[in-house]
Design goal:
This protein is mainly beta. The protein contains 1 helix and 15 strands; from the N terminus they run ββββαβββββββββββ. A hairpin with an 8-residue loop joins strand 5 and strand 6 (about 90-95). The chain is globular, with a radius of gyration of 21 Å.
Length: about 180
């Protein structure tokens, strides 16, 4: 039996290695919050029609088996770094292509970046960072408000209801009392 922890609610999810597919991937939904959780394990390759191994070959094969590890994402799209303050601790959220919904963590919120905070001025779905590629294949990041009750600020400027703002590495934006920095490292 193996166990993984849900990144959203922290619930422990147990699974058997027999549930891992031939690519070493195991995907399930958290029974507590419903978040889709996936893990990729390194597995030893097995051929379908394999002759029995001699004792020496069997020992060599067992020595070469790699222990399971979580795979790293194939491409880095940057991350959001939540700056620690009196409402919450420092948190980091990796970004993916498409819309990355940002908001306050709760059992009923279904956002990609669920910030664990006591900040009452942050909405459950406060804003969105869209990651896409331009014509030259470079990544671009566009921030828009949720719409939220308190608004989304870039620097000291409030984003309008339908306004979109291109943000870059190091851009600081604020949701209620929560400050976030886009980091492309």
């Amino acid at each position: 039996m193996k166990k993984i922890r849900c990144p959203k609610c922290g619930n422990v999810i147990y699974f058997d290695e027999s549930e891992v597919d031939e690519n070493g991937t195991f995907v399930t939904s958290c029974p507590e919050c419903g978040k889709k959780v996936g893990v990729r394990l390194k597995i030893a390759k097995k051929s379908v029609a394999q002759a029995p191994l001699s004792k020496e070959e069997d020992k060599a094969a067992s020595d070469s088996v790699v222990s399971p590890t979580v795979a790293e994402p194939s491409e880095n799209f940057g991350k959001l770094v939540v700056i620690e303050n009196r409402f919450h601790y420092k948190q980091e959220f990796p970004l993916h292509l498409g819309d990355n919904f940002i908001g306050r963590a709760s059992r009923s919120s279904h956002v990609d970046c669920a910030i664990a905070t006591d900040d009452p001025s942050m909405d459950m779905t406060h804003c969105v960072v869209n990651v896409s590629r331009d014509r030259n294949g470079r990544l671009k990041y566009i921030l828009r408000d949720g719409p939220s009750n308190t608004g989304t600020f870039v620097g000291n400027e409030l984003l309008g209801d339908h306004e979109r703002r291109v943000i870059e590495d190091g851009t600081l934006f604020t949701l209620g009392a929560t400050s976030i920095i886009l980091s492309l490292e």
